[in-house]
Amino acid sequence: MEKTLNRIHPVSDPEATYFLQVSWEKDLGTGFGVILSDGQCAWTGTVSEAEISREAADMEMNREKYVEELKKALIAAEESAGKYNFAIS
């Protein structure tokens, strides 16, 4: 299993710091788990392969392109700094 951990500052609260851990088996396109923490609380979830396909279709985006964008936003934070915004709700 592979994992990444990134620090994020959501646009909804730019003074706050959150930590986002993403874990996956084969590749992000087969589904992944997430843990979001503010240092005091943690929230967990999973995204299935079917949900990824559904989101790509909803956005009228090629599935492979959608998975590449997910990688950039969720696990390549340093390379994509400033290109993606996060909102916590």
From TrEMBL:
GO terms for molecular function: DNA binding. It comes from the Eukaryota. One of its GO terms (cellular component) is DNA ligase IV complex. Its main location: nucleus. Keywords: Coiled coil, DNA damage, DNA repair, Nucleus. It is found in: Nucleus. Residues 49-76 form a coiled coil. GO terms for biological process: double-strand break repair via nonhomologous end joining; immunoglobulin V(D)J recombination; response to X-ray. Gene3D superfamilies: DNA double-strand break repair and VJ recombination XRCC4, N-terminal. InterPro entries: DNA_repair_prot_XRCC4, XRCC4-like_N_sf, XRCC4_N, XRCC4_N_sf. Residues 17-88 form the XRCC4 N-terminal domain. This is XRCC4 protein. It comes from Pandion haliaetus. The gene is Xrcc4.
